[in-house]
Amino acid sequence: MQTDLLQEARRQAEICNACRYCEGYCSVFPALHRERAFADGDLTQLANLCHNCRGCYYACQYTAPHEFDLNLPKALAEVRRDSWESFAWPGPFARLFQTHGLRIAVVTVLGFALLFWAIRAIGSAGGDGFYAALSHNAMVAIFAPAFLFPLFSLALSLRAYWKSVGGQPLRLSHITGAFGAVAKMKDLAAGHGDGCNFEDEDRFSHARRHVHQAVMYGFLLCFASTSAGTVMHYVFDMHAPYGLFSLPKLLGVPGGILLTVGTTGMAMLKLKADRNLADAKAWGGEMAFIALLGFVGLSGLMLYALGSTALMPVLLALHLGAVLSFFLLTPYSKMAHGFYRLTALIREEQNKSPTPNPKPAAAA
C-alpha cells in the first residue's frame, strides 16, 4: 500500500483522536478512539468502516483554512481505494478499472454482446423464448465460470484484508451483528440518526441511504430470481419462459426496478456531491460501476417488456453482455466494496466484544 496515503491518514486520525468532537458520529469514531497509535492495519480497517457520509468534515473546526487542514473523508477514501487495489487478485486489473472504468465497461459489454450474437448466428439456439436465441446449455457453459471466478478472486482478496487488519476466528454473534448493520444501512444514517451530508454540505439527508438500500435489495431480488429459475429448471423440470406470476418474475421484476431506480439516484447524488471530499482517482471507476449495474437492471426490464418482439435477440445479447461484464469486473469495481465493508464490520464486532481479541503486531 502507498506509504504517503497511510501517513496522511495517520496524521489526521491522531488529530481526531485528540479532539474527539465527532465521537459517536458513525462506526469509524468509536473504533478510532479505542486506539492510541495507528498501525497500517488499523488505518485500513478504519478506511473500510468509513461510509463517506461526510458529517465529520462539516462538523470539524480544523478543516481548511485551518493549518491542520483536516479532510478525513477524503484521506480514508484514498486509503480505502488503495487497499482494494493492493488486495485485489490479480492486482493490476483493479488499478486499471479505477482509471479507465467507463471505457472498460463499455468495451466489455459490447464485446460480450457481439460474442453472444456470434454464438446465436452459428446455431446454438434451441428452445422457447430466450432459448430460441441462445440455448440453455450455452448460457450455463458461459456463466458458470464467470460466476465462480469473482467468488474465488474475492475470497483471496478478503483473506489478505483479514490478515492485514488482524482478524480473529469468527463467532456467530460477530457475523449477525455485522449483517444487521448492513441490512439497515445504519452508518449511512450516522450516529445521530438524521442521515448523512453527502450531497448537500451540512444538510442532513437519508437519500444516499435509501438509494443504497434500493440497489442492495434490488440486486438480492434479482439474484433470488435467478436462483429460483435454476431450482425450477433442474429440480422441478419447469423450463423458461416463465409467466408474470411465477416466482422468477415476482422476484426479478421488482428487483430490476429497484436496481434501475437505485443506481439512477446514486449517480445523481454523486454528481451533486463535492468531489474534494472523496477519492478523485476512484470517481470515474465508481460512476462506471453504477452505470453498468444500472444497465443490467434496465436491460433486463426492457428484455422482459419486449421479449416477444423482433428486438429480443439484440436486447438479449446486450443484457447478457452486461451481466457477464458485471460478474467478471466485480472484484475490481466498487461492487467489491460491499464485501470489504461487511468484512470490516465483522472485524469491528470482534473489537467491540467484551473480551477483545489480541491486537496484531504493529505494521512497519
TrEMBL record:
InterPro entries to which the protein is assigned, alphabetical: Citrate_utilization_prot_B, NarG-like_sf
Protein name, as recorded: TcuB: works with TcuA to oxidize tricarballylate to cis-aconitate
Lineage, highest ranks first: Bacteria, Pseudomonadati, Pseudomonadota, Alphaproteobacteria, Rhodobacterales
UniProt keywords, alphabetically: Membrane, Transmembrane, Transmembrane helix
Transmembrane portions of the chain: 101-119, 139-162, 214-236, 251-271, 283-304, 310-332
